[in-house]
Amino acid sequence: MIVKPKKHLGQHFLTDRNIAAKIVQQLSGNHSHLLEIGPGTGILTELLLDLYPNDLHLIEVDSESVVYLETKFPSLKNNLLQADFLKVNEQDVFVPNMAIIGNFPYNISSQIFFRVLDHRNEVNEVVCMIQKEVAERLASPPGNKTYGILSVLLQAWYDIDYCFTVNEHVFYPPPKVKSAVIRLKRNERSVLDCDEKLFQIVVKKGFNQRRKTLRNALKELLHPTISPHEVFNKRAEQLHLSDFVMITKLISESRLTVNNQSFSG
Q: 95 with 33: CB under 8 angstroms?
């Protein structure tokens, strides 16, 4: 008899096979490598194995779940890695033309997305179930109160679709919040027209004090020559990606001008 794993690490196991099928249907392309994060009891795995019999890989941190999955899916034993996705060696996980799918643990979903961003040139697509409020935030357009740091950073590289809402009763044990499934598809952007490290700093600082105008939120970065620019009258949630790129370029150019003047002097 195969004994199902117990709930661990804040995870809530999906029990509705119709919802599982609907999640799998959101995968939109052919990928050379599919990684499922946190397969748990394997409700998605069973469906994915039919679609990707040779290219499905699993990563699961819980040892009890690993034993269960190895017993239920013996053909995947060599493709099942017991590890923490946030800590695993990059070469063990990321390969070109890959997709990621999973019911992400809610307490680490943002960290998972930051790691996806670091490997955006390998990860073509992500289909995942996360907390509804987080899903709304990621898919939110500018001008919305839920628009934030991850909205901007992810939307720079991915087209994001809010697919559908999932009620609490399809999980064991039921979570206290609603869930949602979203899809991220890599867009055609290969580079940003600005210093990408500075871009991330600008976005994070802007939203860390989101009630303030950017002139105040970014004051540590702004040279007096660019501070009067009208864009700094706005708040971070009002800006499109192109606005953040423009601000980053303004800051970079002002720094370059100052450095050149200092050198000339």
A: yes
Do 182 and 246 reside in the same domain of the chain?
A: no
DSSP category for residue 164? E
State the pTM of this model: 0.92
The beta strand positions in 121-170, using DSSP E, are 123-131, 158-166
Tell me the three state secondary structure of residue 17.
helix
From the CB of residue 209, how many other CB atoms can be counted at a distance below 10 Å? Answer: 15
Query: pLDDT digit string (tens) for 191-232?
Result: 999 999 999 999 999 999 999 999 999 999 999 999 999 999
Any domain includes 116? yes
Full domain range(s) for residue 41: 13-186
CA distances from 262 to 167, 215, 224, 227, 255 (A): 60, 24, 15, 20, 10
| Chain-centre distance for alpha carbon 191 | 18
Tell me how far the alpha carbon of residue 8 is from its chain's centroid.
Answer: 22
